[in-house]
User: What shape does this take?
Amino acid sequence: MKMLHRHIAFACLALLLALLTACSREEPVHHIQLLTFGTIVDVTLYGVEADRARQVFAAVEEDFKNMHAAWHAWKPGPLARVNELLATGEAFSAPPSVLPLIVRSQELARRSGGLFNPAIGRLLALWGFQSDERPPGPPPAPDAIAALVAARPSMDDLIVDGVTVRSTNPAVRLDFGAMAKGYGVDLVIDHLRQMGIQNAIVNAGGNLRAIGRRGDRPWRIGIRNPRGPGIIASVEVQDDESVITSGDYERYFEYEGVRYHHILDPRTGYPTQGVAAVTVIHDNATEADVASTALLIAGVERWHETARALGIKQVMLITSDGTIHMSPAMAERIRFETEQPPHVIRSDPL
Amino acid sequence: MRPGDLLVLLLAAVLVSYLYLAFWGPGTAGEYAVIHANGSEWQKVSLHEEHEWQVPGPLGTSTLEVRDGRIRFSDSPCQNKACIHSGWLSHGGEAAACLPNRISVQVIGRDRRYDSISF
Assistant: This one.
């Protein structure tokens, strides 16, 4: 009997030691946080040596710096030059850093029924969202907003012929804010793969794409609660998926107690109302980024048809009062992290 | 009861409390945070010690407050105060930044419950 006790005691000790060593073991995970691309960029790599990770991080930082310079909507650079030339109505050769975004966004704007509209740069500037620091003050005058909406700037106003572009509407001013982060993440993921990286997460301001796994488990992604602290839900991703959220809390200003956020409805010229956040899971980050914005603008009534038109299957939409709408494909895999399960409305399949 | 019995009971109690803390306890919340200033790591700070960190940036000094296992920007010399609006951060992987003042903070959990966060 005494022998048995000794055995059990020994087994307990061994188990404890095993647990403790499991905690302290270094894992081949490398992580960097960069302030670039106008946001926080997080890159996580799994399964590479520290030296290699440093080289890869340097290359990624360079990529984001270049894209930031090329696509900046209000500082001098290729996109600013394009906007000057579009305003003339004359044909010009578009810079190679900007042309692919024009072509891609034309197609996506059309499929979204114009809810995703990167041609409304003037409206964004009028609201003060084309500045690093909006000076405090009232929202723009209703007349000025109405005039810009009536001019109907649209991606269809751009005639692209090879590398030549011209605008048939002087009201068009491009701002790729609703697409550039996803597009940039896609390009960086391609670059990582070229560098031989198989397991990684690239997260630009909350818009992320994950490839591969974190060793023996999938990557775990948290989704921010739009109306409170912390995380509302989580999802495990692997192989290659983008998880992208648009929310009314990301950029905003307040005036006399009213909050004005940065996602403008191109049909009205005002910030959208009714939806706090939309999360989209999709393979491609560009399309997920565009869709999250377009669905937020579409609202509770029209998000379903808009998601269909954009070929998106996994959607979670959280209204301002906290009701959650989800497509079945999303509902099957998402896990709520709140203490009490929220009120969820399942939609028809997408 | 012999000494061996006591030892077994004691070890069992230790094991159970350890497992409880590891899987259900506060270990799932953040343990410490990393503050970056102007592109490099400025300081690792514990979330268990109440403190106000004064972090220098190009615009001036941002204040990061640590209380009850959480951290937040409580003051910053920027205009739009987006960093302060981000509120309290407590879970591993959560982050906030004052872009104009080039300061960011990220919570590191003991087991990093989330590898990345979509927001």
